[in-house]
Write a structure and sequence with these properties.
The complex is a heterotrimer. Helices cover about 50% and strands about 10% of the residues of chain A. Chain A contains 20 helices and 13 strands. In chain A, strands 2-1-3-13-6 form a five-stranded mixed β-sheet. Chain A has a four-stranded mixed β-sheet with strand order 8-11-7-12. Chain A has a two-stranded antiparallel sheet with strand order 4-5. Chain B is flat, with a radius of gyration of 23 Å. Chain B is mainly alpha-helical. In chain C, helix 1 (about 5-45) packs antiparallel against helix 12, helix 3 runs antiparallel to helix 9 (about 200-230) and helix 11 (about 250-260) runs antiparallel to helix 12. By secondary structure, chain C is mainly α. The chains are: A alpha/beta, B mainly alpha, C mainly alpha. Chains B and C meet through helix 1, helix 3, helix 4, helix 5 and helix 6 of B and helix 1, helix 3, helix 4, helix 5 and helix 7 of C.
């Protein structure tokens, strides 16, 4: 019975394939090759995997494999992953990873399986490898090895209140300077509103700060040394911390996505610089649907260099079934599945999907979605995936950035002192091998 | 000091007043949690905090729909009862022996596992249990959680056993009782309140511990508390569901405590013996 | 003393007592021997960026001695430990006395009084994070409603430690109360009767009679709290992650982050072992005290 249904399904898929590729090629690839196998997937329980796993049944039907999902919240997932990988266990076949954060380190430790060959030779004809965001593929490539396939694209964007802007006579900011001017005006016009909010929690700062630094034209490193004390670096530190100190909420040094979205959603902040993933949380209850505008963070001297990262799907180097694991990865990152995920609000890492009529329809349902997609388009074309230092110890480098920003917010150090202390620690990290 | 009826009634009133004060301080956060679980998710972080709202059970129904809540609860129950039972089984005799001999190193040794950060055990235990193919089994979790419950049982029972006058044991020995028999027939009934406390604490600690389940459970034997985390994360924070999960998670220990209270209040048998 | 039982006792009795504690001892050894040895081994190794491990002797430990973050973490750990322990003992004993005297309180209400420690620490942390948020939370709302100035609570480098101690006390003072209550119940009522006949005031009875008799129980509570407080983790992990800056970066939080966020397993092992030794020392000291106060 289900076999019949499946046959029909395959037939439909084959027809669809025939339309875009040569029918001969499609016959070579057999989704059922690993029928009966079980693939274990260690997932970060975020909207990306949640959307993906609503189609878990489709994968199992298509391939005849069993997908075992082990989902945790991000930090716990990493904790489990580090344990499993340090034990060189084959328990996990596929896992989610943030190449921008841990990529260098995991690649150096040899935890990623090499997807370079499989993604070319073992791919279904409709996989359309070339259709994936080249920037994200590059971000997941270390030492010439492709280590993960992009699942989505995301980055910090500016959520702002159009009604408050109107009331206070503020235009949509076009430059970083405008953001501060707008914050100043709002502070004077409505003292009950927090003019600007973004991340202040130490390990979380780098995510939003990097965007500011790159827009201004700064860079983390120059000539193999930390560059935070360069004029541009100092400018970025100064303005980021000033925005949060003078126009942010009290207690901002503990703020990450939870508090930021709660503050903005409840109508108590005029501008929020937070992840594009938080759209759903922010719009919950519907109060912000009508009065929210979205945009990439305004330009600095270097124009728009938004932070654009994505979750990747990697095959464990210790997995004893690399190929079946790859089958799951390619299904999960295929145009068909990513199209389905897109209408659940997961920004696709394939520019072509953004033009899909069904997705367009979903976008058109709400004006905020249109702006959201427009902002993500900018992220996809101009984005940089550099969050923190491009070194193996990237996660630790983020601590120093966060520390410097917090020192300034809390006025515990002067600008020169804060960046000098950070540079000192960071240079030690860079020198570490 | 003169004890007139008036001053005694005043003492009573002061006691009641203190009790009410303590009650408010202790219970209001918990009450807030329970209330929040009946709010629409986004209202949990609303400002000013809302006290009047139209209650909804959507958080609970969402919880049941999106997670296999009951199978996690059963996992948790098996692990908790197993490890609390194991802790009591090994801990009661050990505490008795330590109290009797006054040689305390066994008690300190069992506590050693609690002295190290839990994270220290993650990797080695994962390797150990993997070696014997026990990842994902209840047994692995029960054993690891017993490392938490065992020292609690021993240390809570130590002072209770210490409180029993030696003369009682000596009399029993003269009657030809073995040590084990003294423990079973005489000492254990006398430390009922201690055992009640040890049982509550073991249950709660095991029930609420998530770190070991994180690496030893493999998803199959995932516990409730490990699953509760899934309601906090970027793009997926659901305060309402989290509060609902927390309320349900806190319920079994609370019920247990209410049941075992009976023992706690009536654990006055010792007085009869001693007097 | 020519009784038959007494002449065979010493040897048999010793064997029997050993057999009673053997399961607990063997079980514990089986569970902790390998992890401890393995961690010691890891602590003597360094891990290069390519994941290669090499023997590095005491390098991790000399790094630790030169690491300001370690010394700061030690200071934070001890400050938080002493503050929390003092608060929890005083309030826990107070609560236990209240509950002990309120004999007519129904069981379910009593268990509500001790309920905070039954809440998963992670949930407690998240709950307080919302309540204490300077902009969103109920705490400042209430303060302002009664005309007091708002506080930055967890976001203030100065107040973060006292605030965390308060959260932890809310959760764990009832736990101390429960242990003390267990001890109170096992005290012979005769001692109170004697005191009452003497006409001693409630406070004198408490100070002169109840407290000394309770000391063994209190020492137990101190030891059980010490092992948890010195490894302070959950609530900080949820609320501040060691911040603001490093104001609440306890040794356990620091060790965790080094190992699982920065992936430096060797140095993390050295940090965790050092913390373990500190906790062990404190427990040994209190264990001596227990021997001294047992009656």
């Amino acid at each position: 019975m289900s076999g019949n249904a499946f046959a029909t399904r395959v037939a439909i898929t084959a027809v669809a394939l025939g339309a875009v590729t040569t029918a001969a090629g499609a016959a070579d690839f057999d989704w059922k090759k690993f029928q009966g196998k079980t693939v274990t997937f260690l997932a970060n329980n975020n909207p990306v995997s949640q959307a993906l796993l609503t189609y878990k049944g489709d994968f199992e039907k298509l391939t005849g494999m069993t997908l075992k999902v082990d989902g945790y919240q991000e930090q716990q997932m990493r904790q489990r992953l580090v344990t499993v990988m340090n034990a060189r266990s084959d328990e996990v076949d596929v896992f989610m990873t943030l190449p921008s954060r841990e990529g260098e380190q995991f690649a150096a430790a040899g935890w990623y399986g090499d997807l370079s060959a499989m993604s070319k030779s073992h791919a279904a004809k409709d996989y359309d490898f070339a259709g994936l965001s080249q920037a994200l593929l590059k971000a997941g490539t270390f030492g010439g090895k492709l280590t993960s396939m992009p699942m989505n694209i995301e980055g910090p964007i500016l959520y702002y209140r159009t009604d408050i802007f109107k009331k206070c006579g503020v235009e949509k900011p076009a430059t970083i300077g405008d953001v501060e001017a707008a914050a100043q005006k709002i502070k004077a016009c409505d003292p009950a509103i927090t003019p600007f909010v973004s991340r202040g929690l130490k390990p979380a700062v780098a995510y939003t700060f990097s965007n500011m630094l790159h827009n201004i034209g700064g860079s983390y490193m120059a000539n193999g040394k930390s560059n935070l004390c360069s004029p541009k670096g100092k400018e970025a530190l100064d303005i980021y911390s000033r925005l949060l100190r003078d126009y942010g909420p009290p207690g901002v040094v503990n703020y990450s996505f939870q508090q930021i979205s709660a503050l903005y959603r409840s109508g108590r902040a005029a501008m929020s610089f937070e992840s594009s993933n938080e759209l759903r949380t922010v719009m919950e209850g519907g109060e912000r649907l009508k009065d929210t505008g979205l945009a990439p963070f305004p330009a600095g001297e270097a124009g728009l260099v938004p932070t654009a990262i994505g979750w990747g799907m990697a095959v464990s180097a210790f997995s004893k079934q690399q190929e079946p694991a790859w089958y799951f990865v390619q299904w999960a990152t295929s145009p068909e599945v990513q199209k389905k995920m897109a209408v659940q609000g997961i920004a696709p890492p394939r520019p072509a999907v953004a033009n899909d009529p069904e997705y367009r329809k979903w976008i058109d349902e709400q004006p905020v979605r249109k702006q959201w997609q427009a902002a993500l388009d900018v992220l996809a074309t101009k984005g940089s995936s550099e969050v923190g230092y491009p070194i193996v110890a990237n996660p630790q480098s983020r601590e120093f950035i966060g520390q410097a920003v917090q020192d300034l917010i809390l006025k515990q150090k002067t600008l020169d002192q804060a960046c000098a202390d950070a540079d000192k620690g960071l240079n030690e990290l860079i020198a570490q091998k | 000091m003169d004890h007139t009826p008036l001053s005694e009634s005043w003492i009573k009133r002061i006691n009641v007043l203190q009790l009410v004060l303590a009650g408010i301080l202790i219970m209001s956060p918990t009450a807030w949690m329970v209330l929040s679980s009946f709010k629409p998710s986004f209202e949990v972080t609303a400002y000013p905090p809302t006290l009047i709202f139209s209650p909804t059970v959507e958080n609970y129904s969402q919880l049941m729909e999106t997670t296999p809540f009951f199978s996690y609860a059963i996992n948790s129950m098996i692990v908790t009862l197993g490890s609390a039972g194991l802790g009591l089984l090994f801990g009661i005799p050990a505490a008795f022996a330590v109290s009797w001999t006054r040689i305390s190193w066994p008690a300190v040794l069992t506590l050693a596992a609690r002295m190290a950060p839990g994270t220290l055990f993650l990797l080695p235990w994962y390797m150990m249990f993997r070696e014997v193919g026990m990842i994902g089994s209840y047994a692995a979790l029960i054993l690891s959680h017993a490392v938490i419950t065992l020292p609690i049982v021993i240390w809570v029972l130590l002072p209770s056993f210490d409180n029993i006058p030696r003369s009682i044991f000596e009399a029993a020995q003269v009657d030809g009782c073995s040590v084990t028999r003294i423990l079973w027939k005489i000492a254990m009934p006398l430390v009922g309140s201690g055992i009640a406390v040890a049982a509550i604490l073991s249950f709660v600690f095991s029930w609420n511990y998530f770190l070991f389940a994180l690496v030893l459970s493999n998803g199959d034997s995932k516990t409730l508390i490990a699953a509760a985390f899934n309601f906090v994360g970027e793009g997926s924070t659901q305060w309402g569901a989290l509060m609902a999960a927390a309320t349900l998670i806190a319920l079994p220990p609370l019920v247990l405590a209410a049941i075992v209270q009976r023992w706690l209040v009536s654990g006055l048998t010792l007085g009869a013996v001693k007097g | 003393m020519v009784d038959v039982a007494n002449t065979v006792t010493p040897d048999r009795q010793r064997a029997e007592l050993a057999a009673l504690s053997a399961p607990a001892v063997l079980f514990t050894l089986a569970m902790i021997a390998f992890p401890v040895i393995y961690t010691v081994w890891l602590g003597f190794h360094s891990f290069s960026s390519t994941g290669q491990q090499s023997f590095s002797g005491l390098a991790n430990y000399s790094k630790l001695i030169a690491d300001n973050e370690f010394w700061h973490g030690l200071w934070v750990t001890l400050a938080l430990y002493l503050l929390s322990l003092a608060l929890q003992l005083v309030l826990g004993i107070w609560l236990a006395m209240l509950l002990f005297n309120a004999k007519r309180l129904p069981g379910i209400v009593r268990s509500l009084f001790i309920s905070p420690f039954m809440m998963p620490p992670v949930v407690a942390g998240l709950m307080w994070l919302v309540i204490l948020d300077p902009s969103l939370g109920a705490a400042n709302y209430i303060l302002q409603a009664v005309g007091l100035p708002p506080s930055d609570w967890l976001a203030s480098p100065i107040w973060v430690i006292p605030t965390i101690a308060l959260i932890d006390t809310w959760q764990w003072a009832p736990y101390v109360a429960l242990i003390v209550l267990g001890g109170l119940q096992s005290l012979p009522p005769s001692v109170y009767e004697a005191a009452q006949i003497d006409g001693a005031s409630a406070f004198t009875t408490f100070r002169r009679i109840t407290l000394p008799l309770l000391l063994p129980t209190i020492v137990t509570a101190v030891i059980l709290r010490s092992v948890d407080l010195l490894r302070f983790f959950d609530i900080i992990y949820i609320t501040t992650q060691g911040g603001p800056g490093n104001a609440s970066n306890t040794l356990n939080i620091y060790g965790f982050r080094v190992g699982f966020e920065f992936f430096n397993i060797g140095y993390a092992s050295a940090l965790m072992l050092t913390l373990t030794v500190i906790v062990f020392g404190v427990v040994l000291a209190f264990n001596r005290l227990r021997g001294a106060v047992a009656w």
